[in-house]
Amino acid sequence: MPAHIDQLETPTVLIDVDRVEANLTRTQTYADAHGLKLRPHIKTHKLPRFAHRQVELGAIGITCQKLGEAEVMADAGIEDILLPYNIMGAEKLHRLRRLADRVTLAVTADSLATIEGYARAFANATAPLRVLVECDTGMGRCGVQTPDEALALAQAIDASPGLVFEGLMTYPPAGAPAAARAVLAAMAGALRDAGLPPTMISTGGTPDLWAAHETRIATEYRPGTYIYLDRYQVAKGVGTLDDCALTVLTTVVSRPTPDRAVIDAGSKALTSDLLGLSGHGLVMGYPDAVITGLSEEHGTIDLSASERKPAIGERLRIVPNHACPVSNLFDRVHLVSGEHVSATETVAARGRVD
Amino acid sequence: MPAHIDQLETPTVLIDVDRVEANLTRTQTYADAHGLKLRPHIKTHKLPRFAHRQVELGAIGITCQKLGEAEVMADAGIEDILLPYNIMGAEKLHRLRRLADRVTLAVTADSLATIEGYARAFANATAPLRVLVECDTGMGRCGVQTPDEALALAQAIDASPGLVFEGLMTYPPAGAPAAARAVLAAMAGALRDAGLPPTMISTGGTPDLWAAHETRIATEYRPGTYIYLDRYQVAKGVGTLDDCALTVLTTVVSRPTPDRAVIDAGSKALTSDLLGLSGHGLVMGYPDAVITGLSEEHGTIDLSASERKPAIGERLRIVPNHACPVSNLFDRVHLVSGEHVSATETVAARGRVD
Known about the structure:
The structure is a homodimer. Chain A is α/β, with parallel strands linked by helices. Chain A folds into two domains: about 5-10 and about 240-345, D-serine dehydratase-like domain (Lyase, Ornithine Decarboxylase, Chain A, domain 1), CATH 2.40.37.20; about 20-225, Alanine racemase (TIM Barrel, Alpha-Beta Barrel). Helix content of chain A is about 30%, strand content about 25%. Chain A is built from ten helices and 17 strands. In chain A, the strands form two sheets. In chain A, strands 1, 10, 11, 12, 13, 14, 15, 16 and 17 form a nine-stranded mixed β-sheet that branches. Chains A and B meet through strand 10 and helix 9 of A and strand 10 and helix 9 of B.
């Protein structure tokens, strides 16, 4: 196995394990200080190794966005999983039932149709399925819109023999935690008033991680990207570039003009995610270089503002705009400490689309 | 195996084999009529089955953008491969040498550094490596900028014992074939004048496919997306929506408001590629529905302009903006004829990043 990153073929993904450890510890310490339970979202790393480490450090379980990811994590011995998704379709509900037999599981619903599916699948289950109602607190994605709707669904869950009403789940919009808190509080209030107080209130998102304790009614927080951070999270002030644990190692394969470099990392390595940022990532050591364009296998860098210009054949490390989908593009990632490669990990939950 | 698309779990990828056959045949017929050799780019499908079909129909070989893709295709029995990329690094050059032992191979270079790498790797090879000079004809990515540079590299290749100068390669910018032709002609002219006439002149791109015959000096054309087409190619006029062979099958998992639907296909299924389009794909049967946002596992659809509104649990088929990176996100795709599933194929060259 290569012992130094210079021996790796490019493009590839490097995960700085020292930064991972610091990011996990810092966040767990913060959560502990505020009596908030952490349930990390594994979509960012998709690695059983890190899911176990998160639990070892104090997380009460993990969050998976897809059933297929949860199955991988259950296979790897993770015992407590939240699946904050409307699981629909006969085959998926069958898989969900099997998953519930081997891990402590909770799911979400934002419609009667979803609840009816769960109820059918768990009608004769030995243990009921714990179901949270998903609330739209401003994200504009899934979730009930009003306290009345939240209550109606909670009552429907409560009335289903195979189900138990567990609480509320939301994914608040980045940068608007106060507004989201107000909506969530109204939903929770309606449930309490109706005699169905939520046991679990789960919120999440790395961008507003350091304000998590201000959502006082929340019992759990589901950050994902905090383990690696990325250019977007740095822009949001969650950490610094020196905290970013995931980088894409790439080679300059062309220097066609004095001001242009082309690297062997394109959208198939960095993704096209911009997240409102300008440019497709940050070149470490070349702060004034701008990744202006990506095609699938090429990244084009404008060096006109950069005094130093990388040479052809030089290797660069790119902090991507968004770390999570990068993990999904690589079968394997390399764990590094500085420039030393300590292990190569298969991204076990990569590509679990369903 | 499921026999009908209704039995498939979502999200997943459907490939309409009748449309594939029509797209391949139409393009091969066009190329044959103009005496142009086709060398399809397999990045779009990444499937040995379709690479073989392309060759059966008359393609003279295939194009792969990455060494890893070429290795998969060589394993599958494809015998003639163009790798239009600067292959750099000791391990990759070693792999390139091994690949050249089992297929008819050509590569490209746009710098002395790349040529020197090839020359070292093939110094004592029994058969020389065929090298084309990559030209920048307006794309602004890799490639030499002037006829003088093209000539200097051709001479360097010609002077290297293990290499043979084969010709010119370009990827012209979409929508500007005439300007690209002029640049390419100037490069080729300089080489002919210097006694190094290019044997092979390779150009490509599906957007300008139907103007391919107008580049009279080109000997080969490398279209990729023509096999599936997609929303971008339809916008460019290459075909119609009824020609699009790749769709993402997805389920409406939430209808949180009268005008909003959320599907289980997000950027992990559709990619974030916009390619200058508005919206993240086209919903078949709902021409006025707009996919306004994607997160990794959710797609948000605005139905305010759509008279018909899909119900929760309904399955939708999405024509993506860009088909090629979608192929790279799925381990398997389903071949369909109408709504009948005829086969499930492993995307053998998926994720071959290096």
